[in-house]
Amino acid sequence: MGRKFFVGGNWKCNGTSEEVKKIVSTLNDAQVPPPDVVEVVISPPYVFLPLVKSLLRPDFQVAAQNCWVKKGGAFTGEISAEMLVNLGIPWVILGHSERRLLLGESNELIGDKVAYALSQGLKVIACVGETLEQREADATMDVVAAQTKAIADRISDWTNVVVAYEPVWAIGTGKVATPAQAQEVHTSLRKWLATNVSSQVAESTRIIYGGSVTGGNCKELAAQPDVDGFLVGGASLKAEFVDIIKSATVKSSS
Ligand SMILES: O=C(CO)COP(=O)(O)O
Fold first, then answer.
1. What are the pLDDT digits (tens) for 80-94?
2. Which partner for 43 in 63, 68, 166, 192 could form a disulfide, CB atoms 3.0-4.6 Å apart?
3. How many domains does the chain have?
4. Pairing between strand 38-43 and 5-10?
């Protein structure tokens, strides 16, 4: 099976330049599995991207946490995909639930952003996931399918897309999805891709899990057959992120 384990660290709106240097130095000193076993992508706030890129070990990559939906221009406060490409930033996170819920980004806008970012040569970590209310109403897969469909309707090549399943109720709450809950959604999502995109895309696209992943719970989650890695928030600012990267060996030894 050719899906390389993927670990992303989403720093969200955190850090000072001193803290950034400290975290990067911890990462640079860490002994982790080689790049053919795990792909590691660090996502600091925009303003720290050049600093992180200049200091970070070459086997780790960087991602922006968002970008504008089309070509740059008179869009005050926005950062375009072209600018990220210009700075040599290979990845962008799009559709994070904090942007969907706090900033009102719709499925359609996120689909447009994914399509535009890919067209400019960026790789995309596309986030999907249900709220607690939606899960309790048994709507998890409907919600995740609608979020994924808005992307699938706008792109034809999934090579540069990683899908991050991040249940909103698990984000920053310490309430991690159980390995069975994560596996259930990941396998349904893969089936959705097989039915609605292609079996090749379903088989090759990485589906990673995010929401209260820690050094303590990552191995059990990583052991699930359809969990291809993690998108980590809080723990990516701490030394335990290294343990999460190392959980890739659960896969390579199985
Ligand atoms: O939102 C997340 C990653 O994008 C997850 O955040 P936490 O790991 O802090 O729950």
1. 999 999 999 999 999
2. 63
3. 1
4. parallel
